[in-house]
Design goal:
This protein has three domains: 58 residues; 247 residues, 3-Layer(aba) Sandwich (Rossmann fold), CATH 3.40.50; 179 residues, no CATH class. The longest helix has 23 residues. With 530 residues, it is an alpha/beta fold. The strands form three sheets. Strands 8-5-4-9-10-12-11 form a seven-stranded mixed beta sheet, sandwiched between helices. Strands 1-3-2 form a three-stranded antiparallel beta sheet. A two-stranded antiparallel sheet has the order 6-7. It is built from 20 helices and twelve strands. Helix 5 packs across helix 6, helix 13 runs antiparallel to helix 14 and helix 14 crosses helix 15.
Length: 530
Amino acid sequence: MIENTDYLSVKEASLWATDHLGKEVTTSNISYLIQYGRISKIGHNGSTQISRSELEKYYRSLNKSKETDWKEKLGQDLNLALSFDNLKESDTTKHIHRLHPYKGKFIPQLVEYFLDDHTDKFKTATYFKKGDIVLDPFCGSGTALAQSNELGLHAIGIDVSSFNAFISNCKIRDYDIKQLEEIIKQITIKLYSKVKASKVDGFENTLIEKLKGFNDKYFPVPEFKYKLRHNSIDEDKYGAEKEKLFLPIYEKLISEYKIKLLKKNPKTFLEKWYFKNIQTEIDFVFNEIKRIKDANIKKILALILSRTMRSCRATTHSDLATLVYPISTTYYCSKHGKICKPIFSTMKWWRTYSKDTVNRLKDFAKLKTNTYQYCLTGDSRTINIPAEISKKQKNFTSVLQQKQKISGIFSSPPYVGLIDYHEQHAYAYDLFGFERKDELEIGPLFKGQTKDAQKNYVEGISAVLNNCKKYLKDDYNVFLVANDKYNLYPEIAAKSGMKIVNQFKRPVLNRTEKDKCAYSEIIFHLKNIK
């Protein structure tokens, strides 16, 4: 029982918040609120304490924004349960779902909700049963494949992007974990020796030390974040001043250590976005991977390298997902509220992602069922699914022949004019040599959101459904997750010979890293017109 006082320790605050909210709030959650200026830290009797009334006020405002405010902005017909707002990030990125970043993916719990055998007041029927085959014609990074496996369903994915199919298939393969760990260890030792020889680690360690002293002085935690939160400081002006103040220190270190930055006239994506020594390290690891004989291990190592590459681009932390322009100096980082630096070596991220990948594969291995999943590379508008599966997985072919037809679809088609799916992984296409087929994307960013773009989108999605339904059983169930702000899906359904039998509207947080505003999406339930 917490004493009736307004001052709470971090531990007491976590216990109080857990009781107040009816869900677990850890000491780490409370520390996060302090660190990022959501609540203030009080120096009371020599220990970190916070005000219970301030904490209560924070949660009250939070609840307002997530329930009342969402309905005010997005409509009263929201199904709040489908927001899965009660889950931690570790739940929504469980096991293999964070093996590689991917813009536009849905959370696994949304897939589970419609594929599993539970019912509730919203989902009043069961649509799939164990052993059924599910199709995802816009497979992306393979969320539906992974969750189908976990639920005991077979699944086929299709994606026009070779790299998307590569990510998806890496996630659901079986691996010799001990062998993988040993190979990672060997590559890491060799990479470390190369980094030490280049002296870039000495430069980075010195730079980090200089930055720490500077940031401790001008951007103290959590005081600075708290001031920003309460608008008592002009962030743009203050950040620009201190960015300029640190720049001579940085430039002097660059000169002393003879660090080579970006190429002046880049001809490739790699030359434009990676420092010279980063490119050298990437090439070194890639050449080591090429020597591996085990095909599956070679592919998962390439995925780890791709994830490492993404984090090592010469850009700011806040622009990591969008790539506004290359940066080769220290800069004020609005995401972290201090002066940050570009990345000068892959070493840290290769180690981090190697360890994380192994742990995630181990976690998924405990849950895997004896079912088949595979993502085909191809155009869902024209692909012959049985013929292509027969070329890739004979065992899956026998299941497909036995079942005769696919039970249904669960997929998240691309939104109109939102993402260029090939371009978001341009670094991987450059290094691995995957063939790009940007012109086959449906609704890409580069085609915009004009009336013509919307018309082409309708034709594209309809063509996918018309092709895929040839392989579906008569009483199929199709679930499409879409942010249909242009009201295109009634026309898509009609052109596909389908009818919308139900709609589930859910609030979500934006999938981009910069914009966290709430928006809604609809899960359209379509069936055959009889």
